[in-house]
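User: Here's a structure from my thesis project, written as structure tokens. My advisor, Dr. K., wants to see whether a designed sequence matches the one we expressed. Can you design one independently, without my sequence as a hint?
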């Protein structure tokens, strides 16, 4: 195990940009403090890859789903999250930004895993709501695979349904269908 030299102060966005890349770890900043975790396990990776693909296939052309892209939730103190999947305007994504601002993110999806359950259900839940992200969906891969969908109503998330099996969802007036059981199987859902 190697030890990298990290800043000894609360991070600014400039500090964040200057950090070395660490592909073997997932790195986020929460209120200026680095949070480092191991990369997710294979089922988690499979699920987020499938989710991004399946959502992209059904979104209108003005939106794009991306996996593991940095989102600046707040600049002071700095909070940068790397959601499993997020949806942003396709025109913005076409500019290939290094990270997105929370104001541009329309939907965030987190896939629960060992070590992130409380963070995803409590910390990120409140951070994403405070940042004004309109939709937050949480996927639980424990059998039966399920998803809880939240929408921002009066600055707080309201539960808009718990799904299992084939989820019939709504994203900004656009229907999405996701076979949740296919997220970790060898073959993705078939149209």
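Assistant: Designed independently from the structure alone:
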């Amino acid at each position: 195990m190697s030890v990298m030299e990290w800043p000894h102060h609360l991070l600014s966005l400039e500090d964040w940009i200057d950090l070395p890349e660490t592909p073997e770890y997932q790195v986020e900043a929460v209120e200026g403090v680095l949070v480092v975790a191991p990369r997710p396990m294979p089922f988690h990776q499979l699920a987020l890859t499938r989710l991004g693909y399946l959502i992209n296939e059904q979104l209108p052309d003005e939106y794009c789903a991306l996996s593991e892209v940095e989102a600046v939730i707040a600049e002071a103190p700095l909070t940068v999250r790397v959601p499993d999947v997020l949806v942003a305007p396709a025109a913005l994504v076409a500019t290939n930004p290094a990270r997105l601002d929370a104001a541009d993110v329309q939907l965030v999806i987190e896939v629960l895993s060992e070590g992130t359950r409380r963070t995803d259900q409590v910390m990120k839940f409140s951070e994403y709501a405070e940042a004004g992200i309109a939709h937050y969906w949480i996927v639980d891969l424990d059998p039966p695979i399920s998803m809880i969908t939240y929408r921002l109503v009066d600055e707080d998330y309201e539960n808009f349904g718990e799904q299992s099996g084939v989820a019939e969802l709504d994203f900004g007036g656009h229907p999405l269908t996701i076979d949740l059981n296919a997220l970790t199987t060898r073959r993705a859902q078939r149209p």
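When you compare it with your expressed construct, this may help: The first strand starts at residue 25 and ends at 30.
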